[in-house]
Design a protein that fits this description.
Helices cover 39% and strands 15% of the residues. It contains seven helices and seven strands, in the order βαββαβαβαβαααβ. By secondary structure, it is of the alpha/beta class. Belongs to the short-chain dehydrogenases/reductases (SDR) family.
Length: 257
């Protein structure tokens, strides 16, 4: 691939860390925005920067983008892997302060970081024309947001996290339409049950995932790298794809019961 500068929010662990490793292996310069630093070393070639950033603070995010650009150029790719767990409580029991925090981190944080990328690319001038075998604008950049299988259909005890992730899916479609003239593709991945370090810790503490595995047609949880592979494809390779939300869930969402 040509040299790219990618921003990965939440890139210090789990799916975000797997994305960072894949992008470094593709030769991209990578900047991680997170509240905790990524592990070092990564064991991959590439340029890596880290900024401790609250993704809901637009001033902090814009400042980090500008500082990162000094070393690696204006960012042209973004993956929004930041997030926190919901309370997993009935709607009547949800704490509204926490509810707003979950919406703010997931939804507002996605918009804030996406706007930072688009503003930086728009600042370089209008999107170039002649991007392929047919008339159209050349691709300038791409964004992959992170939704969830909880965004599909109704789920008990997911009136916070699930709603936030569903809203990210809608936001993705809206931005894809608005920013196509800028040469920016915007897509989303909806991860299914994934064996991240957080989930592995729950399993080690006795959490039983057998019922979950039984409902998944592929009968197992995903690895973070399997999620990262789908994200990498949409971010770097799917040149004629924008506005889609792809479930990567072992068949979970197609089960009708």
């Amino acid at each position: 691939m040509l040299a790219e500068h990618a921003i990965v929010t939440g890139g210090s662990s789990g799916i975000g860390l797997a994305v960072v490793r894949r992008l470094l292996a593709r030769g991209a310069a990578v900047t991680v925005l997170d509240l905790q630093a990524p592990p070092d070393p990564f064991g991959q070639d590439g340029v890596l920067q880290f900024f401790k950033v609250d993704v809901t603070d637009e001033d902090e995010v814009r400042a980090a983008f500008a500082e990162a650009a000094k070393k690696a150029g204006v960012p042209s790719r973004l993956v929004t892997c930041h997030g926190v767990r919901g309370e997993f409580k009935p709607a009547l029991e949800l704490d509204l302060k926490n509810y707003r925090r979950i919406l703010d981190i997931h939804l507002v944080g996605t918009l804030v970081t996406a706007r930072a990328l688009a503003a930086g690319l728009a600042g370089e001038g209008p999107a170039p024309a002649g991007g392929g075998p047919t008339e159209g604008r050349a691709e300038r950049g791409a964004i992959v947001t992170i939704s969830s299988t909880t965004a599909y259909r109704g789920w008990a005890n997911q009136a916070d996290y699930g709603v936030a992730k569903a809203a990210i899916g809608q936001l993705t479609q809206n931005l894809a339409i608005e920013w196509a003239p800028l040469g920016i593709r915007v897509n989303s991945v909806a991860p299914g049950h994934t064996l991240t370090p957080m989930v592995q810790e729950m399993v080690d503490q006795g959490y039983d995932v057998s019922a979950t595995k039984a409902r998944i047609p592929m009968s197992r949880l995903a690895t973070p790298d399997e999620m990262a592979a789908a994200i990498e494809h949409l971010l770097l390779d799917a040149s004629y794809t924008t506005g889609v939300c792809t479930p990567v869930d072992g068949g979970w969402t197609v089960v009708g019961k």
